[in-house]
Specification:
Elements: H1 2-30, H2 33-59, H3 74-102, H4 110-137, H5 141-170, H6 174-202, H7 208-220, E1 228-237, E2 240-249, H8 255-272, E3 277-285, H9 288-291, H10 315-319, H11 325-335
Parallel strand pairs: 2-3
Antiparallel strand pairs: 1-2
Helix pairs in contact: 1-2, 1-4, 2-3, 2-5, 2-6, 3-5, 3-6, 4-5, 5-6
């Protein structure tokens, strides 16, 4: 998996370098600030792809004494670097656009420039879409971030061509700087999105998608002996996941039976979630006076109260650090 990530990033670096040369040549022959905008973003593509290559290599390294959870979080850092570079490029583009408004200059060979930018846009779009698709299948935020950036670059190139076409046919040179500033704002927004997502991952912010996927798998594999699951936390380390949860089991299970049930929960998650998954399960005994009301164990020999409700497992109640009888008490109070 990691060798495939590295191969894809290497292709991204090589292609980004070629397109960088093409775009700066296009700016050289036209003198258009709008085309310079596209070329500047390509510099970000190259730098970001190089850092992404390093981050994919680093994230593949095994856990060690200094990094007990592995090196996967470097992928969030990589996405943050890419987002920061995009923001810097956007600020520089705005500066160049303002200079262009104050000191407008004649534009040349716009049809050739449009053709070169259009060619670059097609290549970026195809590569970006492929990287996003692979990033999702390989659970790699680095590939997704790189792919998203390239697709954004491609879309901006096509809109840029339309703007340059208007300038060419209308002769309104001032539009060059106005279009450049509009794209700079768009670029800044995308840079902010990547930085925001990077910070969220580095700060272990709750990921609704990852939690929802975990809850769905546990509900699909739910057994009657798994009386409840609570205090569940899902942390992501790049493409890898670390899951902690408390599993309530019948109090009369012996140690071997408890071990088997815990192992089954671990296997369910490890086999059905993407990437490398590490699961820590803490086993709790049931409390007959409280848990019997929602316990699903059939023909339980020690049941003290009849079952009155089946509690649905959700991201909300599984994250709480308490058994589900608290929820049942709240349900009864509301009913009264």
């Amino acid at each position: 998996m990691n060798s495939e990530k590295q191969r894809l990033i290497i292709w991204s670096v090589v292609i980004s370098l070629l397109l960088l040369v093409i775009k700066f040549y296009s700016f050289y022959i036209t003198g258009s600030n709008a085309i310079l905008t596209d070329a500047m973003e390509s510099i970000v593509n190259v730098v970001a792809s190089c850092f992404a290559l390093y981050s994919v290599y680093l994230s593949a390294l095994p856990k060690d004494s200094n990094h007990p959870y592995g090196h996967g979080k470097i992928e969030f850092f990589s996405a943050g670097i890419e987002g920061t570079l995009i923001i810097i490029a956007g600020i520089f583009i705005i500066y160049q656009a303002i200079v262009g408004l104050i000191f407008p200059k004649e534009l040349k060979d716009l049809p050739i420039g449009m053709g070169l930018v259009g060619f670059s846009g097609i290549i970026n779009g195809v590569l970006g879409f492929f990287l996003q698709k692979k990033g999702k299948s390989l659970n790699s935020i680095t590939l997704e971030a790189d792919g998203r950036h390239l697709v954004t670059d491609a879309l901006s190139s096509f809109v840029l061509i339309a703007g340059i076409g208007i300038i060419y046919f209308s002769g309104w040179i001032m539009l060059d700087s106005i279009i450049s500033m509009a794209f700079a704002v768009f670029i800044l927004f995308n840079g902010y999105y990547l930085v925001r997502r990077s910070v969220a991952g580095l700060m272990d912010e709750s990921n609704p998608k990852a939690i929802g996927q975990t809850v769905k798998i546990l509900n699909q594999s739910r057994k009657e002996n798994w009386i409840d699951i609570h205090n569940m936390r899902v942390q992501q380390y790049g493409g890898d996941s670390h899951i902690d949860l408390h599993l309530t089991l019948p109090y009369y299970f012996d140690l071997i039976r408890v071990h088997d049930e815990v192992h089954e929960v671990e296997e369910v998650l490890e086999q059905n979630l993407p990437g490398y998954v590490e699961v820590f399960v803490h086993a709790d005994p049931c409390l007959p006076d409280s848990c019997c009301h929602y316990c699903q164990v059939k023909d339980c020999a020690v049941r003290k109260h009849p079952r009155t409700k089946k509690i649905k497992w959700t991201a909300h109640n599984m994250a709480k650090n308490q058994k589900h009888y608290h929820e049942l008490s709240q349900f009864r109070s509301g009913k009264q």
